[in-house]
Amino acid sequence: LREHFFEDARKHVEFLEQNLKDDPDSVRLRVAYLLGVGDLKSVKSMLDSMAESTKQQKLVKAAALQVSGDTERAEKLLAPLVKEESDGKFEDMSAAQMMGRLLMKAGRKEDGGKLADDLLAKKPKDPFFRVLSLAARDKATPEEIEKLRGEFNLDIGDPVARELENYWLGRQQNKPVAE
What we know:
By secondary structure, the protein is mainly alpha-helical. The chain has helices at residues 6-19, 24-36, 40-49, 55-68, 71-87, 94-105, 109-122, 127-136, 142-154, 159-172.
């Protein structure tokens, strides 16, 4: 889809739609495909017919609305879900993460920073919102991100998984492999 090979993407999007119908990523890709081929009527029809009964349905619809550019409607769907997650001490953070991405993509860094602060007050070690907090304040420098990744790796209990993560981190930074 990013390369605008819509005809090639169609069969993959259809496969995902058939096999992962209620998956937010599948719906997002379907909307992106329809927008790419200029089928705005189908996008509108699809969005208008999507259910909003359960949390999962609301998340799927909010993801589709974001892709279609309707961030206002997506935010209205997500706001009560974020409130519920906050009341539950952020045991589940799917709506909060989606809201954070929405706010940053919409250029509302101050709101994204406030959301991150609210969540970090309850879950101070959450990696997603620690990075969001830095990004919202334009402090997400490569050095700060590397420092955070190092901290996150320390939290990996399995020594093999931790070493693999350190290896991949080094590869991404073009560092030689430790002997």
